[in-house]
Amino acid sequence: MIRSNIVSSTPKMKTRVFLFALFxxxxxxxxxxxxxxxxLSPGTLSRAKRILILGDSIxxxxxYVDFIEAAVRLNSPGWHSTFLDxxxxxxxxxxxxxxxxxxxxxxxxxxxxRLDRVLAQVQPDLVLACYGMNDGIYYPFAEERFAKxxxxxxxxxxxxxxxxxxxxxxxxxxxDPFPIRxxxxxxxxxxxxKAYEGYNxxxxxxxxxxxxxxxxxxxxIDVHGPMxxxxxxxxxxxxxxxxxxxxxxxxxxGHAIMARAILSGLKFSEALANAPVKWANEPxxxxxxxxxxxxxxxxxxxxxxxxxxxxxxxKGLPLPEATAKAKALxxxxxxxxxxxx
Length: 341
Description:
Strand content: 5-15%
Radius of gyration: 19 Å
CATH architecture: 3-Layer(aba) Sandwich
Number of strands: 5
C-alpha cells in the first residue's frame, strides 16, 4: 500500500536512494543469474523462422533488436529468418494506466487489446517479450499493481503457448532517476503526476519475480540486473554518467548493454555478445544502418496492419509494399554482412 505521509528528500538522501537502488538491483541479479534459464542457445534464434518482439517504447525504438539481429547474422551466415519488432510505445501487459497519462489525452495501450490479432497474423515461431517498465505506472510498489503485472504475464504465456510459439521473457531495463532528479517525486504521495524517485526498486521486484520463474521452466533473460550493474560501474568512474536523458529510454550504448545481456543469456560467445558495445562506441556502419531501416519499415507496416489504439504512431506502408522493400534490403544486408564477417 502507498503510505499517506509525505516524506521530504534532501539531495544527500536522493543520492543514497539512487546508489542503493542500483547496487541492490546488481546484487539480486548476480544471485538469480546463477540459475540459468533452461534450454537457451544461439540456435534458439537461428532456428526460428519468424521472431516476434513485443514490448513498449524501448522495444519500438529497437536499438537492442538491431544489435541482436546483426550478431545473429554474423554468427549464422546464410540466415534468412525475420525479426518483427512490434513494440508499442506506452504499452503495458498489466492493463494499468496512470489517471493522467499523456496529460489525460489517452490511457496507456494494453497488450490485451491487440495480442490475438498480432499472433494470428504474424504466426511467430519465437516471441521475446520485454514488459515491466510501464507496468508499475511509475508509482511506488503496491501489491495490487504487482498482481496485475503477474496476471498479465501469465495471460501472455497462455496466448503464446496456444499459438505454438516459444516465449522468452526479458526483465525490464533500469529506471534511472539521476538525470531527472529535480523532477522525480518522493514516497508517500497520493498520486504521482511525475515518476516516483525509487521506481527502479519496483522494477527490481518485477525482475526478481520473473527470474524466480526459471525454476518453473520459464525462459527468462535478465536485462535489468546487467544494466544496473553497468550503470553503477560507470557512475563510479564518471559521476554524472547516464544511459538515458529522461531516466527511461536508453541511448545507443544502453541498447547495446541490453543486447549484450540478451546475447549472453542465449549463450553466444563472449566476443559476439560484446560486439554491440563495440558497435555502439563506433560510427554506425552501413550493415547496422540497413538492418535498422529494414526493421523500422517492417515494424510500422505490421503495427498498422495488426492495429492498435496508441495515437501518434507512424503509419506504415501496406504489408505487400513493405515486404517487397524488405526483400530488396535483405540482399543488401547479406552483402554487407559478408564484408564484415
